[in-house]
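Workshop exercise sheet. Pairs work together: one partner reads the sequence aloud, the other fills in the structure field after running the prediction. Swap roles for the next sheet.
Pair: D.N. / O.F.
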Amino acid sequence: MTDTIQSYDDLSRYISGLEKENQYLKESLQAVKGDTERIDDLIEYAVDAIFMGDTRGSITYANRSATVLTCYRNAELLTMNLGELFSKEEQERVPLQYDLLKQGKTVKTERLLNRRDGSIVPVEMNSRMMPDGSYHSFFRDITERKLADKALRVSEEKFSRAFKLSPDVIVITSLEDGMYIDVNQGFTDILGWTSEEAVGRKTLPGDLDIWCSAADRERLMSRLKENGQVGGFEAEFRCKNGQVVIGLMSARIIEIDDTPCLLSVTRDITERVQAAARQKKFEDQMLQIQKLESLGVLAGGIAHDFNNILMAVIGHCELAQQRLTAESPAMENLRQINLAAGRAADLANQMLAYSGKGKFVIEVLNLTNIIREMEHILSVSISKKALLRYDLAEDLPGIEADATQLQQIVMNLVINGSDAIGGDNGVIAISTGVMECDRSYLRDILLDESLTPGHYVFFEVADTGCGIAPDTIPRIFEPFFSTKFTGRGLGMAAVLGIVRGHKGAIKIYSEVGKGSTFKVLLPASQLPTTKKDTETELIPLQESGSVLLVDDEEIVRDIGRAMLNDFGFKTITANNGKEALAIFKQNHKEISFVLMDLTMPYMDGEEAFREFRRIDPEVKVIICSGYNEQEVSQKFVGKGLAGFLKKPFQLSQLQKMIQFILKD
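Structure field:
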């Protein structure tokens, strides 16, 4: 110092320098102390639990979070070994990796920590060993993370289960190009492609080509781009085997590895849509049936009254013909009147056929024989450019039907086929056969009225004509509807009425420009075919005795009286069943038989018949009606009805019936 300090000033400067160094050291120490305090505060108040320990594992320090996590007081922790915070089983399950710790590496593990209150909490433990063998460990409560992971796993498991096991089609595709990323079992079950076949391929045309309409996919993509998700989207999809299914799709855009993808769920609603279509068809059919029934009631009522008028016209015409000589100039006029009345009666019969009440004489018939008997009349009824071909099955089961009505059906269908061919050359093919019809086959018929499955005899009339437009087919059986010209009449309407009346069905196959086929199905009968009766020889009647004639129409009573008087009977008339009953009570021993209408006011024919039978069980009653014999006979089955005459009847028919009931 003596060498350095030469003067007082030097000493002062030296002392001043020492003071500055001292001040700097003080400030540095203060700063270090402040940093140390801040570090201590950070450790003490850290969110994670922090432990420090010596080489024996004893805890030498634990921060506040350590006491909160373990529920031990700080003083208690400082008396414990770190291993005491874990059960023996946990220490064996997740041992500390001392070899790594000794290498100075940080060991990170997840363990279950035992708290002072007996509860267990999952922790993430990070431990590091210092060079002197001491350690420090950081514990982080991962309960919420574990719960979140568990919830995520449960969610993923649910999605995986739903994805794999759902009966619906669930797929994940690339939004950009429609490539399949994943598909579920429902995809395979419904569309037929396995996961191995589909994943990596595209839904677009040229690959799997699952969308039946590219426009549908474009519509879906457009709506997805607008809203990000779509629900209730209906489209048609093509299966591996070519079958088409109708799907109801919900879809939304998701991201997988930052790539936009499409997650879609599609339910197969093919059966639902088809069921709805069947239901609509059924409702349309029921509406049509109700319309036909309403029109049928009207037609039947008109035909009934019309027949009463025709009864008088035909009856008086025949009586006049009998009373005039063949040379009389009036005979030709009467003949024309009779022919016109006959045509009017045919029209009335068509109206009854349309109403479903047109079966008049029920027999067990062979359909092939019916058509063979018509070959000549069919050949002269069609265009010369139409060729008739027959394919008629032998040994057909019988059908319970009216021969005249069946002939009307065949004639109408053949003539319509000829009209469809027009001036061109063409073929009309008529075939017969028998087939087993199940419920599904009978469902797809015109006006299904819950027909019974079973054996049906059928005939087909197929033509190579112009065909029928699909929207026209439901209307062709409407009365007076025609695509040709106005006023075609009840032809096809009568066909439908006859078929319905026979509990049959009609199937129509038609293609515009190629032709039409009408297939008529009639229930097969178990009864043997009816043999034709030999014609009964008419013997002139010269009878005596009384006949009770009952009808509410005066014109029918008048012509009936004239016919019966012509046969030699004395005729007593009544205009209803009640009046007839009063007459019958007084005169039944003198009455040979009763000729009575079915439909009358006050007391109808059925009720009057029962009362007659109570008075005289042997009474002979002939019922007259404009309705068919089958319908009337059902009312009197097993009750002793003598006979039935359908209005309008001819004099010869009445003569034959009287001859039949009085022959004994």
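Discussion prompt: DSSP finds 21 helices and 22 strands in the chain. What would you look at next?
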